[in-house]
Specification:
single chain; 248 residues; alpha/beta; Rossmann fold; seven-stranded parallel beta sheet; 48% helix; binds acetoacetyl-coenzyme A; binds NADP nicotinamide-adenine-dinucleotide phosphate
Length: 248
């Protein structure tokens, strides 16, 4: 990959399972990587671990569910590190339950963190990308946004919404050299998936033709591919990465 210009990538939710793997892969592939964190305690441990492994990656606080917090974070990154070439909208949460039992708070928390966050962060980096005639927006959706999942009306709605956002924005900014794509992972072995009751998870894995959970490095590889210079004609696309769990 030709990253002689050292493109800067911002990964939201960097301290999570997928975010960590993305940061490492992008760093190893020659990008200037900046991460976003939410919980201070988690961020401190993460920084220590990354330093010990030889990764030089700065973390910036931001609640991506909140527009002003996202704007402030991006301003700070631009002042301290420089302009953002690639944004990976990765932060996300689940609050699973059947709709009959779902609390109003769990609906809004999931929509705000998984979907409104995409607006909150993208809106604050887009003008600069358009001006500089280069940008990569990579939205981390889910297989459960493509097909729905029992107990996930909130999450599926948010993740489906990301597809509409991706397709529409891709059309709006194509002529400025800014690409917008979605990745839809299946079940990957992170804390988020490990929170699913074991019995339920075993049933889910049994439906995956590859018979296993995905690895975080497998998704990270796809992120780095989409962040590269050479993917300049790929936009408005959705990449499934699910071990064959959902083919269509
Ligand atoms: N399909 C059909 N019926 C189901 C079902 C399913 N998948 N799961 C449960 N049911 C039925 C049960 O059989 C039961 O029926 P009866 O009342 O007739 O006996 C009824 O629903 C209630 O079952 P529970 O008591 O288990 O329901 P609950 O409300 O306590 O829990 C749940 C439901 C929270 C959705 C739980 O099943 C669960 O956690 N499921 C996993 C959801 C999931 O896949 N989450 C993914 C998280 S990771 C992630 O999201 C990452 C990603 O992008 C892939
Ligand atoms: P994870 O390990 O739980 O990590 C989620 C990250 O998001 C954490 O760093 C978390 O930080 C951060 N976050 C949560 N709320 C935030 C907020 N308001 N502002 C900023 N950051 C926030 O989950 P993961 O599996 O890596 O998931 C990453 C993304 O992939 C999510 O969007 C998820 O929906 C998606 N995805 C995951 C899978 C999977 O199987 N794992 C499959 C498909 C899609 P704190 O913990 O500090 O709050």
């Amino acid at each position: 990959m030709s990253n002689s210009k050292k493109r800067t990538v911002l990964v939201t939710g960097a301290t999570g399972g997928l975010g960590t793997a993305m940061c490492k892969k992008l760093y190893n592939d020659g990008f200037n990587v900046v991460g976003n964190y939410h919980t201070k305690e988690k961020a401190d441990k993460w920084m220590e671990q990354m330093k010990s492994e030889g990764f030089n990656i700065k973390l910036f606080y931001g609640d991506v569910a909140d527009f002003d917090s996202s704007a402030e974070m991006i301003k700070k990154i631009e002042a301290e590190v420089g302009t953002i070439d690639t944004l990976v909208n990765n932060a996300g949460i689940t609050r699973d339950s059947r709709l009959v039992n779902m609390k109003k708070e769990d609906w809004y928390a999931v929509i705000n963190t998984n979907l409104n966050s995409v607006f909150n962060c993208t809106k604050n980096v887009l003008d600069g990308m358009i001006e500089r005639k280069f940008g990569r927006i990579i939205n981390i959706s889910s297989v459960n946004g493509q097909r729905g999942q029992f107990g996930q009306t909130n999450y599926s709605a948010a993740k489906s919404g990301m597809h509409g956002f991706t397709k529409s924005l891709a059309m709006e900014v194509a002529k400025y050299g800014v690409t917008v794509n979605t990745i839809s992972p299946g079940y990957i072995g992170t804390d988020m998936v490990m929170a699913v009751p074991e019995k339920v998870l075993n049933q889910i894995v049994a439906q995956v033709p590859m018979g296993r959970l995905g690895g975080t490095h497998e998704v990270a590889h796809l992120v780095s591919f989409l962040a590269s210079e050479e993917t300049s004609f790929i936009t408005g696309a959705n990449y499934s990465i699910n071990g064959g769990q959902h083919v269509y």
